[in-house]
Amino acid sequence: MKITIVTGCDANYYPLLQELIASIRQFPESSGVDICIIDAGLSREQVGALSGSAARIVSPEWPAAIPTERTKGKDYLKACVCRPFIPEIFPGYDMYVWLDADTWVQRWSAIEMFIEAAKKGDRISLTSSADRAYTKPVRISWLGNWPIKVKNFYSSNGRKPFGNSYAKAMVEQYVLSAGCFALAADAPHWKPWQKLVIEAATKGKLFPAEQLALGKLVHLEGYRAELLPAYAHWLCVCKPRWDAEQNLFVEPFMPHEPLGVLHLSGVDELRADRTVTTPLETVTGDKVNLNYRFAGFDGGRLGRATPERA
User: Fold this and answer.
1) What residue numbers bound the domain in which 254 lies?
2) Does the structure show a pLDDT above 80 at 283?
């Protein structure tokens, strides 16, 4: 099986991209896996520096069905909108593993888990916002004792592109993460996902069109998903714990399973500057101050703490 890990970003996220690649290549098991990169606004110098680390670096065209007036000046969002098109951007692979540029791999076993689940061919392997440690995804507005508005990520962002029926049907659903997934090249998901992301990007915002479309694909249209445990792909907006003996980030609750892929989502200052730290509790109850970025390579500071998402 020919496997590639695909990621992509603009010049601002280049330091994180370097750290992601270093985190992958720290594992001998990654030697048979290619790395492919979507150039979503990298500088010429950055592309040159990456050429020795990546099998292919491509600056793709926008999906033709999306009006050009919506995409002009927003190449940094190609890494989002072009995600369902990666088998066409990087053809020739049997399995595609996507990792956002602001992720890094702490345990290779997590990558193996994503691949093994997707080998079934009829399902996408991913994680969701459902975990005992995560905050509840539904937000409720109250008028006295009465709830007057209930919303979540899907209903807040998906009403405009997909309508009220989508918002109503999806308000009870956990969010499926498009930030880390594996999907076989011949899986049935790609074409319908492409169609949905074009619809979402045309009628709504470019960000987060791919995640809204993925939710509709799985929750409403019935395409199969293999839901992996949250420790396989951890959203760092929820603080992990630190295992000082193993030198690993772990789940905050027992049995403190080591985290596989760490995603620096929702922690803008920590993501932008690795010298910024946050207090964490260790598994033995001590206190430490750490940054979540990959410790094995220093890619430097980001130019902007908050990514462009217009």
Assistant:
1) 232-290
2) yes
